[in-house]
Write a structure and sequence with these properties.
about 725 residues; mainly beta; Immunoglobulin-like; 6 domains; five-stranded mixed β-sheet; 1 helix
Amino acid sequence: MKKQILLLFFLSLIINDGLSQCNVIYVTNSGTGDGSLNNPASLDSALSLAVSGDVLKLDTGIYSLDNSLQLKDSITIEGGYKSGSNWEKSSLLGATSLRRNLLNPQIQPNRVIAIEGFNLNKFRLQDLTIEMQGAITPEQSLYGIHLDSCSNYDIVRCRFNIGMAGAGIDGFSAPGLGGAGLGGQGGSGGASNQGCNANGGNGANGLPGAGGTPGGSGGAGANGQGCNIFGCNAGPENGNGGSVGNSGANGVSASQTPPTATITFPYFIPPVSANGGDGNGGGGGGGGGGMSKGTDCTCSYFGSGNGGNGGNGGNGGLGGTAGTGAGGSFGIYLYRNISGNIVDVYIDLNGAAQGGLGGNGQPGSIGSSGGASQNAGCGGSSANSGTGGNGGDGGNGGNGQPGANGLNEKIVIDGNPPSMTQADSSISLVLGSNNPVDFELASQPVINVSNVFCAFQDVMFYSDSIKTWDFGASSNNQIQNGASVTVQYTNTSRYDVFYALTNYSGFVNIPFTTTQSDAGLDQLICDTLEADLNGNVALNDFGVWTSLGASSVDDSSLNSSTVSGLSIGDNLFVWTITSACCPVSSDTVNIKMGNTTNVTISDTALDSYSLNGQNYTQTGTYIQTLTNSLGCDSTITLELVVNYTGLDDNQNTHISVFPNPAEDMIFLLGLEDLEGGVKIKLFDFKGSTIKEIKQKQSIDISFLSKGLYYFEIEYEKQRSIHRFIKK
């Protein structure tokens, strides 16, 4: 008789110094405690408490992240647990969400990251939804997970819902501030010492505008003439006007095709677009030529006016500035990672953000007018010097380039999204039928599971309909049908669960095991009050013996201890193994104690004697060794006398039995001749008395079984034996 007992108890019994043992930290949205089962922590506190090997079990609900969640080496963050239902696990998509708000962005480049890790190993994200709203500032990039130089990680059954990145900023048109050419200075009148034939001076050429546009040429001075009516042969002549300055060239417009954004590392940086070219300034106008003059006639300064100055060239228009590139939206962004597993993830993105428009160039300004001529006539003359030329118009500014559109990638691996048929060597990517990152988790049936903790513990699964479950070969009951089933796992590991042909990857985590109690085989002992127990060794756990009776255990912590004070019959002992992390395991052994018995039987038989199926037909002493009711030896000594009588004892020969063999009635013939005091006994063939019979001749034997029987008849101290057969 062996009875296996598994005692389940609350995990609160294994809490030490306020901190959760067994590498589990329990987390709720409202947690303020130390992370133990009955005193959960907040997410921030749990992350600060977590050390290598810890599992953070997150309650269902939405956790708001004001900053990036910083991963640690060898920790697991797992959602889907329900604190109000004894921390059972649910497969409901979105049951546990990490919602990153847009507070505290990182700069250069502008970015917001929900979860990030650098140079980490062996971490795991399981059954989480990572959410982020669309950017509210331009050019901002959004990352669900950003990993740099990490290895041996697992991202399993996670959903990402990442909003649109920040759009680019439109370029603008600046006021026209380009440079302008200066007008040339006007020429002077002819020198006074030249007499009537003196010429006016030529005007100077205008200067080029900014950007190299030539200025206008200066006007030629007028020739001097002799004095006639006014002292010379003729009056003064007008000076020639300066030429108009050339217009400035237009600025070059940048390409109106936005640049193409490409992945950059360690973070995405939008490409820079080109500004439009500034327009060139107009050339200055040429100066006007001076009129002729003379000094030997009546008017001594006749014709002395200088030419007008040329006008300044117009300013060139500034080019339009470029639009800026939009940020990128990324579900999973991997850089320089060595190895990892991404399994059954589902990523939603909300489209690529648009780059900013390029600004338009400004038009150039109009050149200034040339300077007016000077009237230098004398004695009724109206001769003028030449006017200055107008400045040239400034050139228009060129248009700026549009900014690049943002990126929108579910998974990026060192600059490239993975294809549907081939994963990057740095990760093991489980591919879907249509898209490598769309696994339709939302369409899966919802299942729940309790007691996910230890090997050899009942793990209970249930759903809303009767379907087929497959728990794998590591379970004690691999294939089951039903809406509610129970299974045990025999080893520590993470296990897939198949339900209704749907795979729940790594859904069950069995992190711990304990030595299963084995109290040993039941024992039988005889004629002693002591015995040795034979329980199994409690590896890394604590074992103790408990007596369920008056017997005592010499050393209760020793698996092979001696027991004493045993009682006759059953003596029960329980071997209990206690683990820090798993339920108690107990097994019971029975030590039955008995005594050897010796019995002597002295008996006489007619013809034969049967004992325990053994038939004896001769007088003698016989010994049988049997097992008694307690299981010990029982020795029986038979001292037997066999008296073979034949059919009749001739002491009363006048009495006979008729018929013989008989069936229903038998008659004792001759009995009528005997007077009173007759005793009749009926025996079976073993010599056992069946009944005593009153004196009569006919006797009913119908109640007898067929076989050999005897009548004993006593009368006046005489005895006769009569044998008959019942047929």
